[in-house]
Amino acid sequence: MPSEARPESLTGLHTFPRLLLNHARSRPDAPAMREKYLGIWQTLSWAEVAVRVRALACGLAELGFRRGDNLAIIGDNRPHLYMMMSAAQALGGVPVPLYQDAVANEMLFVMQDAGICFAVVEDQEQVDKLLEIMPQVGTLEHIIYDDARGMRHYTQPFLHDIQELIEMGRIHDRNHPDVFDNEVSKGHHDDVSVMLYTSGTTGKPKGVCQTHAAFISAAQGGVQVDRMSGDGDILSYLPMAWVGDHLFSYAQALVAGFTINCPESAETVMTDLREIGPTYYFAPPRVFESLLTSVMIRMEDAGKVKQKLFHYFMGVAKRCGGAILDGKPVGVSDRLMYWLGNVLIYGPLRNVLGMSRIRVAYTAGAAIGPELFGFFRSIGINLKQLYGQTETCAYVCLQPDGQVKSDTVGAPAPSVEIRIADNGEVLVKGPMLLKGYYKRPDATAESINAEGYFMTGDAGFLDADGHLKIIDRAKDVGKLSSGAMFAPNYIENKLKFFQHIKEVVCFGHERDMVCAFINIDVGAVGNWAERRGIAYSGYTDLAGKPEVLDLIRECVEKINADLVHDAMVADSQIHRFLVLHKELDPDDDELTRTRKVRRNFVAEKYGVLIDALYGGKSSQFIETEVKFEEGRRGKVSADLKIIDVKTFPVVKKAA
After folding, report:
1. Strand (E) or helix (H) holding 335
2. Which of 48, 320, 374, 568 has the lowest CB atom count within 10 Å?
3. Which of 211, 226, 248 is the last residue of a domain?
4. pLDDT digit string (tens) for 255-288?
């Protein structure tokens, strides 16, 4: 056996490098990773990955990377970037993935806070960002790049092609054949395996230090619940800096041994999804919303016969599809019609979506509408919800087969304890909890109570079946001036279930009524407008069309009618709204990179609009500076119409 793959000296599988070497020894020829390059899928076996990780680790050691050093990882999902995580861990270092779409100044805080000494990046674009901020990051010594295109004229001695690093590592390994195995053998389950930074919705991001034991425990729980095996596939397309990707595409892949598939680019994800046909799939609700919107738009373009067939069989699926998926008893005639619908509609539709082989699909990060959730389950896609945070390895609740509900995030996952505090906050305990916030013992102490429970910051309750239902962020739950509860996220999510609405921000704490900012979905609303012969020149023009405002008003009034039946939030009906003249954007600091609204920032930035909503105005002019991807700045202005909405009387139940 070559020196690059000698796992005999290792005992136990309690770190990720040991898991990797175990797969390389026990199933060396099984596919570990695939990458689509120039239109062709390239496959790497577990043995090949182990050999390459060994070379990368030895190359890092040759450059001076040592135990305890932090390695930044920046780029789209690429096999070499995942391998560099393992290489850093093998030497006792800590990978620190950053969001690849962040601009240089956004990366600066993390680079400084984490004291990054080495960085591995995808391509020239990311190299340029680091060169821009390098003078302000005194610890940064070496930058390694994966894609050499455009790098020919970069002559700085601290820049290294990853292929050169591999060759350097092979030479180092020949000269020091015991270094790699010795470093891996020193690895302990309680060592920090990764540092993931929080989104920073209310302040500066914090580095969450998670151990090998925490992520391996979380991965093992998920693998156990959903019976994952080494013959599966996942398409890894979500940001590597996001805790979900680290759990699904790294930790669970190393525990179960399934194959990580990296798409060619962000633009080819849907094509690559259809080609790979993953068995395991994860996407936030907005991706499933986008998929359903595209399906409905295509159906509007179809002929009358196809439309009738689609709507008829979708009625059948809605009636019995979910029950069939859950293995519940269904009448013979319904089963027969569902079988026929599967041949004519559901099967081809799953194939178009790239979900023909899905065994389990998960969504998390935000609430998903019951109709959207039901649609995918009704056509035979085993879609479930999960719940977790960066501080819990994205692992708190799971939905076992046969216990799937659209209005809960599932039951406590294996080894997880959940308690609801007196103020309604969800508290969790288990082996998946963070070791601490990097250089922030104060924040660590504030996040874990005296009994060892992590305080999630979410408000919720356990239903009669022991499933957790999330209401809102605890800090965002307020009261109207009448004393009634105001849960903005709960209302916002209900509105975002409509395909024409992309984002919502509600206001009402300590006020006499609820008002809202709304972003339209330009794709869905644009298609709706074109079918009605409504011409428009762009987002701002479309958002201000009277017909569009009427469309959104109808959506809001439907939600108001629905809220009346929920005693907890019946008083939180929306009285007035406006459609913003621009989309809320991470580049304008209105959203985090995980697309969470920076609520306080938005309220301050658009204070004049909030004043207009509550001041009884019928319109308000605003001019806003925007930042384009290439760094240019410009201004968007509009005279926004403020729409009054029909509300419904709250029926008080008799005592």
Report:
1. helix 332-341
2. 568
3. 211
4. 999 999 999 988 899 899 999 999 999 988 888 8
- Domain of 41, CATH number, reads 3.40.50.12780
Q: Which residue has the tokens 């179809």?
A: 302
Share of the chain above pLDDT 70, in %: 96
How large is the average pLDDT for residues 583-607?
88
Instruction: Write down the pLDDT at residue 627.
Output: 79
In a domain, 276, yes or no: no
Residue 292 or 90, more confident:
90
The total of other beta-carbon atoms located within 10 Å of residue 205's CB is: 18
Does some domain include residue 621?
Answer: yes
The total of other beta-carbon atoms located within 10 Å of residue 108's CB is 18
Mean residue pLDDT of the chain comes to: 91
Q: What is the helix, strand, coil percentage profile of the chain, to 5?
A: 40, 20, 35
Q: Which two tokens stand for residue 317?
A: 């699926």
336's enclosing H/E stretch is helix 332-341
- CA dist 573 and 563 (Å) reads 7
Q: How far apart are CA 473 and CA 365, in angstroms?
A: 12
Alpha helix stretches (DSSP H) within 27-161: 46-63, 79-90, 104-113, 124-133
* Residue whose tokens read 């629905």: 562
Residue 253 lies in a domain: no
- Under 8 Å between Cβ of 318 and 374: yes
Residue 30 backbone class (left: φ over 0; alpha: ψ -120 to 50; beta: rest): beta
Judging by beta carbons within 10 Å of its beta carbon (0-12, 13-18, 19+), is residue 179 exposed, middle or buried?
Answer: middle
Where residue 599 sits, what CATH number does that domain have?
A: 3.30.300.30
Q: What is the pLDDT of residue 3?
A: 35
| Rg, Å, the chain Cα set | 26
Encoded amino acid at 259, one letter: T
> What's the confidence (pLDDT) of residue 454?
96
The domain of 488 spans 478-644
Confidence label for 22 from pLDDT (cuts 50, 70 and 90): very high
Query: Would you say residue 331 lies in a domain?
Result: no
Are 473 and 492 in contact by the 8 Å Cβ rule? The answer is no
Measured distance CA(197)–CA(204) in Å, rounded: 10
The pLDDT of residue 653: 52
pLDDT, tens digit, for every residue of 445-477?
999 999 999 999 998 888 889 999 888 888 888
- For residue 136, which of 160, 102, 110 has the smallest C-alpha distance? 110
End of a domain among 181, 211, 241? 211
| pLDDT at residue 186 greater than cutoff 60 | yes
Domain count, the chain: 2
Cα separation, 113 vs 130, whole angstroms: 15
